[in-house]
Every structure is written in structure tokens, then in C-alpha cells.
Design brief:
single chain, rod-shaped
Length: about 100
């Protein structure tokens, strides 16, 4: 007899809840191709001897990198929370199956 026949439905109505979608933003950093195009010659043409502008652009780039790192860490934590909740739901279902009255 297949397992799907005569099997009682789980009493827990939130059986494997749908996981919320994570909010992942696209990167604001340049692609590798764009970085390669920004060779030393292009940088020299862009900045010349203007070290203040180069330092300002560098600081802005570092700020973007740090913001994206924070976003990545937050998204990773959210995914871990989702995985832990799913594991808790699975453990709850296993506890139901392990009950003496269970037909499974």
C-alpha cells in the first residue's frame, strides 16, 4: 500500500510555510570589465594631478563597498533565520510522526 493512502493529514496547519522572498539589491559596483577599462592611463586622464578628487572618489567607493557588505550580511542573517524556522517546522513534524498513535 502506498504511503500516501490512508495517511492522516498533519495536525499542524502551517505545514512547511512558504518562505518569504529575500530583498537582494543589484550591486552598485563596477563590473570587472569596467574596472579593466579603468586602467592607469584612463585614471591619469580622469584625475591628472587632482589627488583630492581621486581621494573623494576612493572614499565614496569604499563607502559603497561597506554598505553592500552590510546588506550582504543582513541578507545572510535573514536566510539563516528562514532556514532555522524551516528546521524547527521539520522537527515539529518529526515529533508528530514519532508519536505512538501515528500511522506512519
Amino acid at each position: 500500500m502506498p504511503l500516501s493512502q490512508n495517511r492522516p493529514a498533519p495536525s499542524n496547519n502551517n505545514f512547511l510555510k512558504r518562505q518569504p522572498e529575500l530583498n537582494i539589491r543589484p550591486s552598485r559596483l563596477s563590473t570587472l570589465t569596467e574596472i579593466e577599462e579603468g586602467s592607469a592611463i584612463n585614471l591619469e586622464q580622469k584625475y591628472g594631478n587632482d589627488l583630492d578628487k581621486m581621494c573623494t572618489d576612493h572614499e565614496n567607493l569604499i563607502k559603497v563597498i561597506l554598505e553592500e557588505e552590510d546588506d550582504l550580511i543582513a541578507t545572510h542573517r535573514d536566510q539563516i533565520d528562514i532556514d532555522v524556522d524551516l528546521a524547527k517546522q521539520e522537527m515539529s513534524l518529526l515529533e508528530e510522526v514519532d508519536q505512538p498513535q501515528s500511522d506512519i
